[in-house]
Amino acid sequence: MGEAGREEYKIQSFDAETQQLLKTALKDPGAVDLEKVANVIVDHSLQDRVFSKEAGRMCYAIIQAESKQAGQNVFRRGLLNRLQQEYQTREQLRARSMQGWVCYVTFICNIFDYLRVNNMPMMALVNPVYDCLFRLAQPDSLNEEEEVDCLVLQLHRVGEQLEKMNGQRMDELFVLIRDGFLLLTGLSNLAQLLLLEIIEFRAAGWKTTPAAHKYYYSEVSD
């Protein structure tokens, strides 16, 4: 099964017209307005948490299809421009919609995870992704379980790659996380557990030891 085939199951959550637009973008990108496609995907990602976790793969497939067909990057440029627009108003987004903010962070981390230039993550996304994770590590965010959960999930997903791109910023991020874990009053038990788990996960070389897996995941399931 090709990339386009693998993506079709994700398209079912859209209306019929948008489904057709996305299917065409995957199979014949030159036949559709790819900037419109980029906006459709970002809009849906900000509203649908499940889709925001997986949209990077669809974006990667469209980029590959466009490059193969025409040697162009209209879709990638449109996607990055829209991500930049949302990034610049991220505080307003967070104030307006916690779900939209968490979806945005999930989406930009997912794009960072999938998009490559010469088999390397895109440098243009490194600092925006870090800035989002730094925002999630601020005291007011650490008191929101939804944001703590997002922070930890994204660090599991892209933390090791981010550290390779800029180790100093990762050190600074984990100072915030450790300070939050040790010094903040009022953290929920789940938030404390998640923060301790990610601290130990990084300390172990971005791996979960068998003992840690048994401890944390039995605690979460309880």
TrEMBL record:
One of its GO terms (cellular component) is cytosol. Its main location: cytoplasm. It comes from the Eukaryota. Pfam families: MIF4G (PF02854). It is found in: Cytoplasm; Nucleus. InterPro entries: ARM-type_fold (IPR016024), MIF4G-like_typ-3 (IPR003890), mRNA_TranslReg/HistoneTransl (IPR051367). This is MIF4G domain-containing protein. It comes from Heterocephalus glaber (Naked mole rat). The gene is Mif4gd.
